[in-house]
From TrEMBL:
Record family assignment: Belongs to the peptidase A1 family.
Record bears the keyword Ion transport: no
One Pfam family from the record: Asp
Domain Peptidase A1, residue spans: 36-341
Keyword vocabulary terms for this entry: Aspartyl protease, Disulfide bond, Hydrolase, Protease, Signal, Zymogen
Protein name: Aspartic peptidase domain-containing protein
Organism: Gigaspora rosea
Lineage, uppermost ranks: Eukaryota, Fungi, Fungi incertae sedis, Mucoromycota, Glomeromycotina
Length: 345
């Protein structure tokens, strides 16, 4: 959730069957507002957190936060944790739709059956804006690179790798569309769930930002719509599970919608709509490989808003769940790569 050379690999030998590693997977539930969340435990207290590729900090509300936004969510009680140690360093984190502030603490974090010892995390004492109150999740579990963090500490997954709590320095994400039953996705820590995709994973090198690895940034080759290439060149995109849609600079969004049959632009609010029953064939081309997008991920059911809208970060695209639901994706923090494969139907 942002503040507003391709490598082809066929390493099936490295893939461990998910049946052998179920304890390292987290069931994800799709939020009614944004993203996917799952459970973790800090000091014997369970929280729902958004697993967010677009940020790198872990935080939960503090018992000392008395605002309404905090009071309707689970809050961390320091006295109930035997592993907690206060640090007290103040922090402030700005997101595209809100802001949080508080102080830091240290404790053991358990997620997907994996424990991180001595993880520094944020205890939020103030939440600003109206973004967090309606969310089903209590806090955020950042899964970007360490240099992106505002708290200035290794991410929980980085610590899992350094403490050898996981076998491999990567995690896999599978996202479903429906929230009709139970979990609607899976986060597999330190492993890859080979039951969720077909063929081989195609790996792409992550780009730096300001000379550092911060965001999950890739070069995007192009987009095709109904077999027509849009001829986008030299586009970079941040992949972010904290965003439901795809955001592009205004000119790129306009180009995209010229090829979508029946699309229209609303001058009043600057958004695009497309027919709710659109049948256009859209594919994103990354590393020379085309990834088809299901029609249900082109438009919202209720109001026919397009899942591509104007907006960007430093002139880069932001590619969210509308794309990621169509692929199984793997994020390697040591090799600095993202792998994609078509999901199993």
């Amino acid at each position: 959730m942002l503040k507003y050379q391709n490598i082809y690999v066929t390493d099936q030998d490295k893939l461990v069957s998910a049946k052998e590693r179920l304890s390292e997977s987290v069931n994800l539930t799709i939020s009614n507002v944004v993203g996917y969340y799952g459970e973790l435990t800090i000091g014997n207290q369970t929280f729902k957190t958004l697993f967010d590729l677009g940020s790198s900090d872990l935080w939960v509300p503090s018992q000392n936060c008395t605002q309404y936004d905090c009071s309707i969510h689970k809050r961390f009680n320091e006295s109930l944790s035997k592993t907690f140690n206060p640090i007290g360093t103040p922090f402030d984190i700005e997101y595209g739709a809100g802001e949080v502030a508080g102080i830091t603490g240290k404790g053991n974090v358990l997620v997907g059956g994996i424990e991180t010892v001595g993880q520094i995390f944020g205890l939020v004492q103030e939440e600003y804006g109206d973004f967090f109150a309606p969310q089903e999740f209590d806090g955020i579990f950042g899964m970007g690179f360490n240099d992106l963090g505002f708290i200035k500490t290794p991410t929980p997954f980085s610590n899992m790798v350094e403490q050898k709590a996981v076998t491999n320095p990567y995690f896999g994400i599978y996202l479903e569309r429906s929230n009709d039953t139970g979990h609607t996705g899976t986060l597999t820590l330190g492993d890859i769930d080979t039951t969720k995709f077909t063929g081989n994973l195609n790996y792409n090198n992550v780009s730096t930002y300001d000379g550092k690895y911060m965001y999950w940034i890739l070069d995007v080759g192009d987009i095709s719509i109904n077999g027509n290439r849009l001829n986008f060149k030299n586009r970079k995109a941040i992949f972010d599970t904290g965003v439901n849609i795809v955001l592009m600079p205004e000119e790129d969004a306009a180009t995209y919608h010229k090829f979508i049959n029946g699309s229209s632009f609303n001058d009043h609010d600057g958004t695009y709509t497309v027919p709710c029953n659109t049948m256009d064939q859209v594919a994103y081309i990354i590393g020379g490989v085309s990834y088809n997008i299901d029609q249900s991920d082109l438009v919202t059911e209720s109001d026919c808003f397009s899942f591509v809208q104007p907006g960007s970060f430093d002139n880069m695209w932001i590619i969210g769940d509308a794309f990621l639901r169509n692929v199984y994706s793997v994020y390697n923090i040591k090799d600095f790569t993202i792998g994609f494969a078509p999901i199993s139907k």
